[in-house]
Fold this protein.
Amino acid sequence: MPNPLVSVIIPAYNAARFLPNALASVRRQSYSPLEILIVDDGSEDGCARVAAELGEPVRYVRQERAGPAAARNRGLELARGEFVGFLDADDEWPEQKLSIQMSRLLAEPELDVVLGRVRYVAIEGGEIPDYLFEGPDHEISNVHLGSGLYRRRVFDKVGNFDASLRYCEDVDWFMRARELRVGLRILRPVTLIYRLHGDNMTRNRERANRFLPLAFKRSIDRRRQMGAGAQARLDPLFSGDEWSPGTPPLVSAIVPVFNGARYVREALVSVLRQTYRPVEAIVVDDGSTDETAKVLDEFGPRVRRASQAHSGQSAARNLGVDLATGRYLAFLDADDLWPAEKLAAQVAILEGDPQCDLLFGHVEQFRQNGGAPSAPMPGHLPGTLMLRRDAWLRVGPLRGDVKVGEFLDWLLRARQRGMRERMDPRVWLRRRIHGDNLGVREREARGDYVRLLKDAMDRRRRSAGAGGSA
């Protein structure tokens, strides 16, 4: 199944010096296929020459100066993709933007818009605004046009941008989308790098402040005509992390793989056959040299892929979590299998028990060369676990300096931090036993367990000495 086409629309006005960086950030995307549309809004600085030098898959069109809204509308007229993204010529996209957002849109067909966080970067005399940022890297959750990925159909429902607004046309569009209850989510990963410089349009605050009240007034007038009532007129533009209350929470299923071509197909099928929806399947290829990539190609956009130089299973799982957008996280090794009801059962428990952070189940082992499976037993293993994303963030990532035992170390740290866990009696993992299991390959590294247990004891002693619980 081929990936759907994404049309990237870049309005440009006297932005020749910025275009190469913007285009490079689009070309670095780990997603394809793309078409890139540069709409030159009457530039006088050589945008046409720069665009001509950028080569395929860039399409360049020019119009008389009409403003960014009109330029984006022209791009929408020309776009052939089922999905659309917008990038201002002086901004950039992080490398994983499209793969993260496309995964979410494919996992939740009812969604029309997926946004992300914005990172502010000052260049060429620009200044970071005095905002209440969410971290040291000047990141913030915001409704920003360039941070989003959109289904083309949403513009049929909401309409195009209002070309009469030279400023705040994006605010006006999002208000119209909000009024129509368009399905929209704001994800945690950064999906736009907003570059501040001396020529940003938004630096002209006097003009921008004239258009913002107009956009709000139009929204209020529309809501009055719709009979929505005073409270609806005062609703915020967005609240929380999403605009789709009542929809089931997304589960991110993370599958690390290294030279797993023999088994990874079965593992991924067991993820995609889960009775629960929505699920985003993330595969992190840890530098495989066999036919793993060819097997993964079979799954197309149903599986989001990332790759790294061979760094070990811990690093692969950590990268998968960094890319995940779900409220809940689940892990499956590439040679193991999940029963079809695993995720549905776990989500039901976690949704009903907000005090539970880590939810484990039982494991059944089976041999690749045949024979009766083992009796089910409690499994404090990544493959039986579902956990809340915020629990992972509180405990921290897996250690990358050991070859075995990294999950034991993580679980001990989780317990020392007071994470609450449950063990369900149902079988939630079928673990394959074969000659190339990690424990077999790394048998000489079993001394790592001793080091990890000593580190855990040292942490408890330090905690006790500082007045904490031992």
Summary: Residues 205-226 form the longest helix (22 residues).
